[in-house]
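May I ask you to comment on the folded chain given beneath this request?
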Amino acid sequence: MARRTAICNSIQRRAVRRVGTAGFLVLLAAALAVVVGLSRADDGKGPAKDDTLSEKGFASIFDGKTLKGWHASAETGHSAASKHKSGGKWVVEDGAIVGSQDIPGNGGLLISDAQYGNFEVALEMKNDFGPDSGLFLRSNDKGQAYQAMIDYHKDGNLMGVYGEGLSGGISVRNFTFLDKVTDIKEDKCPFPLPVSPEKWPAFWKHGEWNELRARIEGNPPKVTTWIKGVKFLEWSDKEKRHADKGGIGLQVHGGGDYTKQFVRYRNLRVKVLD
Protein backbone atom coordinates (compact mmCIF):
# COMPACT_ATOMS: atom_id res chain seq x y z
CA MET A 1 0.00 0.00 0.00
CA ALA A 2 2.86 2.44 0.90
CA ARG A 3 4.55 1.81 -2.44
CA ARG A 4 1.29 2.43 -4.32
CA THR A 5 0.77 5.67 -2.38
CA ALA A 6 4.30 6.85 -3.23
CA ILE A 7 3.75 6.11 -6.91
CA CYS A 8 0.43 7.98 -6.90
CA ASN A 9 2.02 10.97 -5.17
CA SER A 10 4.84 11.00 -7.72
CA ILE A 11 2.36 10.93 -10.61
CA GLN A 12 0.38 13.72 -9.00
CA ARG A 13 3.51 15.92 -8.60
CA ARG A 14 4.51 15.36 -12.25
CA ALA A 15 0.97 16.21 -13.43
CA VAL A 16 0.94 19.42 -11.39
CA ARG A 17 4.34 20.48 -12.84
CA ARG A 18 3.14 19.84 -16.42
CA VAL A 19 -0.30 21.53 -16.38
CA GLY A 20 -0.18 23.72 -13.30
CA THR A 21 -2.36 23.54 -10.24
CA ALA A 22 -5.49 24.90 -11.95
CA GLY A 23 -5.12 22.55 -14.88
CA PHE A 24 -4.55 19.61 -12.57
CA LEU A 25 -7.73 20.42 -10.64
CA VAL A 26 -9.68 20.47 -13.91
CA LEU A 27 -8.28 17.06 -14.86
CA LEU A 28 -9.06 15.74 -11.40
CA ALA A 29 -12.66 16.97 -11.60
CA ALA A 30 -13.09 15.31 -15.00
CA ALA A 31 -11.69 12.04 -13.66
CA LEU A 32 -14.05 12.16 -10.69
CA ALA A 33 -16.98 12.79 -13.02
CA VAL A 34 -16.06 9.68 -14.99
CA VAL A 35 -15.81 7.63 -11.81
CA VAL A 36 -19.19 8.88 -10.57
CA GLY A 37 -20.72 8.17 -13.95
CA LEU A 38 -19.37 4.64 -13.92
CA SER A 39 -20.64 4.09 -10.39
CA ARG A 40 -24.15 5.12 -11.51
CA ALA A 41 -24.08 3.10 -14.75
CA ASP A 42 -26.49 0.26 -15.19
CA ASP A 43 -24.86 -2.92 -13.97
CA GLY A 44 -26.86 -4.94 -16.50
CA LYS A 45 -29.39 -6.07 -13.93
CA GLY A 46 -31.59 -2.97 -14.17
CA PRO A 47 -33.53 -1.39 -11.30
CA ALA A 48 -34.26 -3.60 -8.32
CA LYS A 49 -37.54 -5.48 -8.47
CA ASP A 50 -39.86 -5.59 -5.49
CA ASP A 51 -39.20 -8.96 -3.88
CA THR A 52 -42.43 -8.72 -1.85
CA LEU A 53 -44.53 -9.31 -4.97
CA SER A 54 -46.00 -12.78 -5.38
CA GLU A 55 -48.14 -14.53 -7.97
CA LYS A 56 -49.81 -16.56 -5.25
CA GLY A 57 -53.53 -15.93 -4.93
CA PHE A 58 -54.15 -14.40 -8.37
CA ALA A 59 -57.16 -15.42 -10.45
CA SER A 60 -57.61 -14.70 -14.17
CA ILE A 61 -60.34 -12.20 -15.08
CA PHE A 62 -59.97 -12.51 -18.87
CA ASP A 63 -60.27 -15.82 -20.70
CA GLY A 64 -58.26 -14.68 -23.72
CA LYS A 65 -61.10 -15.48 -26.13
CA THR A 66 -64.19 -13.46 -25.21
CA LEU A 67 -65.25 -10.44 -23.18
CA LYS A 68 -67.29 -12.60 -20.83
CA GLY A 69 -67.32 -10.96 -17.41
CA TRP A 70 -66.83 -7.49 -18.85
CA HIS A 71 -69.13 -4.76 -20.14
CA ALA A 72 -68.60 -1.50 -22.01
CA SER A 73 -69.84 1.73 -20.44
CA ALA A 74 -70.93 4.74 -22.48
CA GLU A 75 -71.88 6.79 -19.41
CA THR A 76 -68.63 8.75 -19.12
CA GLY A 77 -67.76 12.03 -20.79
CA HIS A 78 -65.40 10.11 -23.07
CA SER A 79 -68.46 8.78 -24.95
CA ALA A 80 -70.03 12.16 -25.69
CA ALA A 81 -69.26 11.94 -29.42
CA SER A 82 -71.76 9.06 -29.77
CA LYS A 83 -74.22 10.87 -27.48
CA HIS A 84 -73.48 8.11 -24.97
CA LYS A 85 -74.73 5.34 -27.24
CA SER A 86 -71.43 3.44 -27.37
CA GLY A 87 -68.37 3.17 -25.16
CA GLY A 88 -65.69 2.85 -27.81
CA LYS A 89 -64.71 -0.33 -29.63
CA TRP A 90 -63.57 -3.37 -27.64
CA VAL A 91 -62.68 -6.70 -29.24
CA VAL A 92 -60.49 -9.73 -28.55
CA GLU A 93 -57.61 -10.36 -30.95
CA ASP A 94 -54.76 -12.82 -30.56
CA GLY A 95 -55.54 -13.44 -26.91
CA ALA A 96 -55.67 -9.75 -25.98
CA ILE A 97 -58.33 -7.14 -25.28
CA VAL A 98 -57.97 -4.48 -27.98
CA GLY A 99 -59.60 -1.09 -27.56
CA SER A 100 -60.00 1.97 -29.76
CA GLN A 101 -62.43 4.74 -30.51
CA ASP A 102 -65.33 3.46 -32.59
CA ILE A 103 -65.92 6.82 -34.26
CA PRO A 104 -63.56 9.80 -34.14
CA GLY A 105 -63.51 11.25 -30.64
CA ASN A 106 -65.63 8.56 -29.02
CA GLY A 107 -64.05 6.46 -26.29
CA GLY A 108 -65.32 4.78 -23.17
CA LEU A 109 -64.64 2.16 -20.57
CA LEU A 110 -64.55 -1.61 -20.43
CA ILE A 111 -65.39 -2.60 -16.85
CA SER A 112 -65.37 -5.92 -15.03
CA ASP A 113 -68.80 -7.16 -13.96
CA ALA A 114 -67.32 -8.24 -10.64
CA GLN A 115 -66.82 -5.66 -7.90
CA TYR A 116 -63.68 -5.51 -5.78
CA GLY A 117 -62.67 -3.72 -2.60
CA ASN A 118 -59.09 -4.32 -1.53
CA PHE A 119 -57.22 -5.96 -4.37
CA GLU A 120 -54.16 -6.15 -6.57
CA VAL A 121 -54.55 -6.25 -10.34
CA ALA A 122 -51.89 -7.13 -12.89
CA LEU A 123 -51.87 -7.07 -16.68
CA GLU A 124 -49.59 -6.86 -19.68
CA MET A 125 -49.90 -3.99 -22.14
CA LYS A 126 -48.67 -3.35 -25.67
CA ASN A 127 -50.32 -0.08 -26.63
CA ASP A 128 -49.63 2.21 -29.53
CA PHE A 129 -47.92 5.44 -28.44
CA GLY A 130 -50.71 7.97 -28.81
CA PRO A 131 -54.02 6.82 -27.31
CA ASP A 132 -54.80 7.86 -23.74
CA SER A 133 -55.84 4.92 -21.58
CA GLY A 134 -55.96 3.99 -17.91
CA LEU A 135 -56.39 1.21 -15.36
CA PHE A 136 -59.41 2.12 -13.23
CA LEU A 137 -59.63 0.92 -9.63
CA ARG A 138 -63.06 0.63 -7.91
CA SER A 139 -64.73 2.11 -10.97
CA ASN A 140 -68.45 2.66 -11.45
CA ASP A 141 -70.12 2.92 -14.85
CA LYS A 142 -69.76 6.71 -14.77
CA GLY A 143 -66.00 6.20 -14.67
CA GLN A 144 -65.48 7.57 -11.17
CA ALA A 145 -62.41 5.76 -9.86
CA TYR A 146 -58.85 5.92 -8.69
CA GLN A 147 -56.89 5.57 -11.90
CA ALA A 148 -53.46 4.06 -12.35
CA MET A 149 -52.39 6.12 -15.32
CA ILE A 150 -51.72 4.60 -18.71
CA ASP A 151 -51.43 7.96 -20.44
CA TYR A 152 -49.18 6.54 -23.13
CA HIS A 153 -48.51 9.66 -25.17
CA LYS A 154 -46.53 12.89 -25.19
CA ASP A 155 -46.97 14.69 -21.83
CA GLY A 156 -48.44 11.48 -20.38
CA ASN A 157 -47.35 9.04 -17.71
CA LEU A 158 -47.48 5.40 -16.66
CA MET A 159 -48.62 4.24 -13.23
CA GLY A 160 -49.10 7.63 -11.65
CA VAL A 161 -52.36 8.06 -9.71
CA TYR A 162 -55.27 10.20 -10.88
CA GLY A 163 -58.66 10.80 -9.33
CA GLU A 164 -61.01 10.23 -12.26
CA GLY A 165 -64.23 12.10 -11.52
CA LEU A 166 -63.27 12.45 -7.86
CA SER A 167 -62.90 15.51 -5.69
CA GLY A 168 -59.54 16.76 -4.49
CA GLY A 169 -57.73 17.27 -7.79
CA ILE A 170 -55.71 14.06 -7.36
CA SER A 171 -52.85 13.81 -9.84
CA VAL A 172 -49.56 12.28 -8.69
CA ARG A 173 -46.72 11.28 -11.01
CA ASN A 174 -42.95 11.09 -10.95
CA PHE A 175 -42.22 11.27 -14.68
CA THR A 176 -43.63 12.62 -17.93
CA PHE A 177 -43.20 11.38 -21.49
CA LEU A 178 -41.55 13.80 -23.90
CA ASP A 179 -41.96 13.65 -27.69
CA LYS A 180 -40.85 10.03 -27.97
CA VAL A 181 -41.67 6.96 -25.92
CA THR A 182 -37.97 6.54 -25.18
CA ASP A 183 -37.66 10.03 -23.69
CA ILE A 184 -38.98 10.96 -20.26
CA LYS A 185 -38.33 13.73 -17.75
CA GLU A 186 -38.38 13.28 -14.00
CA ASP A 187 -41.07 15.15 -12.07
CA LYS A 188 -40.94 16.25 -8.45
CA CYS A 189 -42.84 13.72 -6.39
CA PRO A 190 -42.78 12.46 -2.78
CA PHE A 191 -42.09 9.01 -4.25
CA PRO A 192 -38.93 9.42 -6.36
CA LEU A 193 -38.63 7.98 -9.84
CA PRO A 194 -36.95 4.54 -9.51
CA VAL A 195 -35.58 4.51 -13.07
CA SER A 196 -33.55 7.47 -14.31
CA PRO A 197 -34.50 9.09 -17.64
CA GLU A 198 -31.15 7.87 -19.03
CA LYS A 199 -31.98 4.26 -18.21
CA TRP A 200 -35.64 4.39 -19.27
CA PRO A 201 -35.03 3.23 -22.89
CA ALA A 202 -33.30 0.09 -21.63
CA PHE A 203 -36.02 -0.56 -19.04
CA TRP A 204 -39.21 0.04 -21.01
CA LYS A 205 -39.62 -1.97 -24.22
CA HIS A 206 -42.10 -0.31 -26.55
CA GLY A 207 -43.69 -2.75 -28.98
CA GLU A 208 -43.32 -5.62 -26.51
CA TRP A 209 -45.58 -6.83 -23.70
CA ASN A 210 -44.75 -5.00 -20.47
CA GLU A 211 -46.35 -5.80 -17.12
CA LEU A 212 -48.21 -3.20 -15.05
CA ARG A 213 -49.59 -3.78 -11.58
CA ALA A 214 -51.68 -1.77 -9.11
CA ARG A 215 -52.91 -2.37 -5.57
CA ILE A 216 -55.61 -0.50 -3.67
CA GLU A 217 -56.26 -0.99 0.04
CA GLY A 218 -58.46 0.69 2.62
CA ASN A 219 -60.70 3.73 2.38
CA PRO A 220 -59.26 6.36 2.35
CA PRO A 221 -57.16 4.18 0.09
CA LYS A 222 -53.49 3.51 -0.29
CA VAL A 223 -52.57 2.95 -3.94
CA THR A 224 -49.33 1.28 -4.98
CA THR A 225 -48.20 0.72 -8.56
CA TRP A 226 -45.45 -1.25 -10.28
CA ILE A 227 -43.95 -1.41 -13.75
CA LYS A 228 -42.26 -4.68 -14.68
CA GLY A 229 -41.97 -5.63 -11.02
CA VAL A 230 -40.38 -2.31 -9.96
CA LYS A 231 -42.37 -0.23 -7.49
CA PHE A 232 -43.09 3.09 -9.21
CA LEU A 233 -45.45 4.89 -6.86
CA GLU A 234 -46.99 4.64 -3.41
CA TRP A 235 -49.63 7.18 -2.45
CA SER A 236 -52.32 7.47 0.24
CA ASP A 237 -55.45 9.58 0.13
CA LYS A 238 -56.29 11.69 3.14
CA GLU A 239 -60.07 11.36 3.06
CA LYS A 240 -62.80 9.01 1.95
CA ARG A 241 -64.20 10.31 -1.32
CA HIS A 242 -65.32 7.18 -3.19
CA ALA A 243 -67.09 3.85 -2.69
CA ASP A 244 -65.45 0.91 -0.91
CA LYS A 245 -65.89 -1.33 -3.95
CA GLY A 246 -66.08 -1.07 -7.71
CA GLY A 247 -65.06 -2.67 -10.95
CA ILE A 248 -61.70 -2.89 -12.68
CA GLY A 249 -61.78 -0.70 -15.76
CA LEU A 250 -59.81 -0.15 -18.96
CA GLN A 251 -60.16 3.16 -20.77
CA VAL A 252 -60.05 4.58 -24.25
CA HIS A 253 -60.05 8.35 -23.86
CA GLY A 254 -62.40 10.55 -25.85
CA GLY A 255 -61.31 13.40 -28.11
CA GLY A 256 -59.10 13.52 -31.18
CA ASP A 257 -59.24 10.68 -33.66
CA TYR A 258 -57.89 7.38 -32.33
CA THR A 259 -59.92 5.02 -34.47
CA LYS A 260 -56.74 3.63 -36.04
CA GLN A 261 -54.53 3.47 -32.96
CA PHE A 262 -55.07 0.85 -30.30
CA VAL A 263 -54.63 -0.16 -26.69
CA ARG A 264 -53.91 -3.84 -26.03
CA TYR A 265 -54.11 -5.78 -22.77
CA ARG A 266 -53.67 -9.44 -21.90
CA ASN A 267 -53.08 -11.76 -18.95
CA LEU A 268 -55.40 -9.77 -16.70
CA ARG A 269 -55.56 -11.21 -13.20
CA VAL A 270 -56.66 -10.10 -9.75
CA LYS A 271 -55.78 -10.97 -6.17
CA VAL A 272 -58.46 -10.20 -3.59
CA LEU A 273 -56.93 -8.83 -0.39
CA ASP A 274 -60.09 -8.59 1.78
About this structure: Helices lie at 2-40, 200-203. The two ends are 61 Å apart (CA to CA). The chain has two domains: 1-41, 59-272. The first strand starts at residue 59 and ends at 60.
